[in-house]
Design brief:
60% of the residues lie in helices and 6% in strands. The chain is mainly alpha-helical. A two-stranded antiparallel sheet has the order 1-2. The two termini are 37 Å apart.
């Protein structure tokens, strides 16, 4: 019963705000220490793109966290410096050594997408006077290289590895081009529009969502929609085309948003489809995907579904055993920094107090279930005690 009390209490979690989201800052401090101690190299041993991925997510979390921070504050300068360190790490030979250079886009869509998008976010965050000319030139050159590869491609999905293509990787490439047009003089909108039309012709036929994996030659689906990739893609699709993203998001909720024991979660496979977890999904329990739900939290916020955002956030707080020690916040006892990086990126979207108002108690089903289990436990314990006392009494009589 103590476990149920803990879970119910954590479902009422609210982050602390003192001119910033203090809890996210503490998450970033934990990740900062972990990366200094070699978490990037450690994650590379666990995940194919672990080194690159954890630095990208760490940098992106800082970008969102700093949105409401005064540029003169030491915290802002610290954050920009950390984003710079993440970009430097992602440009190291170690970060790209698993990606083949000999592809239509050298080093592939995954590597180019994440490295260029983080650089775009840094430039977008900074005032014009703060931007580094070398970074601006590097970003523009990367965009032109990616755009040239898209123009030559017979499919909207460039490969990430030789003969392998995943739409989620490509979304970051195109989102980077979109940000180029917001930061500099627009030049890629016609290309982006053509790309979107090609994507719409290659949707998963069973859900009408962007598929999880496609054939590298023609971009036709090889694997249907999955919760982990849908949650990720919808964060970037919203920046590329908000209307298309909203229609995809509606289908995403229809097929993937679910409840277990009254609490929200995001399925890894569409309703009616069963499957097991893999390197992309993380653990899958009762059909609910770990990665799908953590990134899905951010997806909900991006699309204005703040009640679902709060529900997913607080479930992660509760079941992720969140704790703060020495102003460093971690989840699952800090055993998997990659998970901490994903959670920080999702939580950093909430960067000021009163960003949303939850109007209903989404916890009530779980609370009723908890009450029922508690009452049943009390009844069973009382019956056991009664039986024990009755047996002792009979022994005394005899």
């Amino acid at each position: 019963m103590l476990g149920l009390v803990y879970l119910n209490a954590r479902l009422y979690y609210q982050p602390k705000f003192q001119n910033c989201n203090v809890d996210v800052y503490h998450q970033l401090q934990f990740l900062k220490t972990q990366l200094q101690e070699g978490a990037g190299e450690e994650m590379q041993q666990l995940f194919p793109e672990g080194f690159l991925f954890i630095h990208a997510l760490y940098g992106l979390a800082w970008c969102d966290f700093l949105q409401k921070i005064d540029h003169q504050k030491p915290m802002y300068k610290e954050g920009v410096a950390e984003i710079g360190k993440a970009i430097q790490a992602m440009n190291k030979p170690m970060a790209r050594r698993i990606f083949a250079k000999e592809q239509p886009l050298p080093y592939g869509a995954f590597y180019n997408g994440w490295t260029t998008y983080l650089l775009a976010k840094k430039l977008e965050l900074q005032a014009t006077s703060e931007r580094d000319s070398l970074e601006m030139n590097a970003f523009q050159a990367k965009c032109e290289t990616m755009a040239a590869a898209i123009r030559k491609s017979p499919t909207p999905y460039l490969t990430s590895y030789p003969y392998q293509a995943w739409p989620a990787d490509m979304l970051l490439v195109v989102a980077s081009l979109k940000k180029h047009d917001a930061i500099f003089e627009p030049k890629y909108e016609p290309l982006i529009s053509t790309w979107l039309q090609a994507v719409k012709l290659r949707l998963d036929t069973s859900t009408q969502l962007i598929p999880h994996e496609v054939h590298y030659k023609d971009g036709m689906p090889l694997a249907g929609a999955r919760g982990s990739s849908q949650s990720l893609m919808l964060n970037f699709l919203y920046e590329i085309d908000a209307d298309f993203s909203k229609s995809q998001f509606s289908l995403y909720k229809k097929y993937f948003l679910a409840r277990r024991f009254g609490l929200p979660g995001v399925r890894e496979y569409p309703k009616g489809v069963r499957g097991t977890g893999d390197i992309d999904s993380g653990p899958v329990l009762l059909g609910i995907g770990g990665a799908a739900s953590i990134v899905g939290q951010r997806t909900m916020g991006v699309h204005g579904e703040w009640e679902q955002f709060e529900g997913l956030r607080n479930c992660i707080e509760a079941f992720g055993a969140a704790c703060t020690v020495s102003s460093k916040k971690r989840y699952i006892f800090g055993q998997l920094p990659m998970a901490d990086a994903f959670i920080a990126w999702s939580n950093a979207l909430e960067n000021h107090s009163n960003q949303y108002i939850t109007r209903s108690n989404w916890r009530w089903r779980f609370q009723l279930l908890s009450l029922a289990i508690s009452l049943l436990s009390i009844f069973v314990l009382a019956r056991m005690r009664y039986k024990s006392e009755e047996k002792i009494s009979k022994l005394k009589i005899t």
